[in-house]
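step: validate -> pass
step: tokenize input -> pass
step: predict -> running
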Amino acid sequence: MAVSHTPATADPGPTTHTLNGTAAGSPYPPPPVPFPDQALWARVIRYARCADSTLDPDQWFPVSAEADKARHEAAAAITVCTTCLVRTQCLELSLRHWDIGQHGVWAGLVPADRAALRRPRRRGDRRSECP
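step: predict -> pass
step: emit ->
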């Protein structure tokens, strides 16, 4: 009697991955919402004007903490942002993810501008009242 040395099942080869990072045919369910901002990040990365800018990277990071001086230092970067299609989404991400959003120019705003947006309004502040 001849014995076959061929394995009963063939090796499936490398695992194919899907966009959400889970393996195709994996017995484990995907995590509930691993990256809630994944679509927003993808949109900003794809359409942001800063991505194809020819500016020196240092021009995106003003040195001064004072808003007026920082705006002057980053004027070229701010100009790129003025016509960007995803400026609103960029600002949203910078405020949501402050650990990285507190640095550099995002949505045409310097860190001091974005920090002011993050501060809660006081009850007696007239600017926060609706007309």
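step: describe -> DSSP finds six helices and no strands in the chain.
step: cleanup -> pass
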